[in-house]
Inverse folding.
């Protein structure tokens, strides 16, 4: 599998800044998928994937606020 960073997005949520890194994954047969990685703490990351970038961004926008709320609403 080959992975390529294709986009970096910065957002501000719950009084903290986060960087979302988006990757394009290509398997040996030429199939593709997309993944995102958000560091929300020193050793705490959220990694999501999907078949399309649009669906992945939709997932990130749904999941990230919930995860932050469940961890006390702040980074670190």
């Amino acid at each position: 599998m080959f992975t390529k960073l294709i986009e970096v997005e910065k957002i501000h949520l719950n009084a903290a800044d986060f960087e979302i890194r988006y990757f394009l994954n290509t398997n040996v047969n030429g199939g593709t998928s997309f993944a995102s990685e958000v560091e929300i703490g020193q050793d705490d990351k959220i990694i999501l994937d999907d078949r399309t970038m649009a669906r992945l961004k939709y997932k990130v926008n749904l999941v990230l606020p919930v995860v932050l709320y469940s961890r006390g609403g702040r980074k670190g």
The mean pLDDT is 90. Residues 2-70 form one domain.
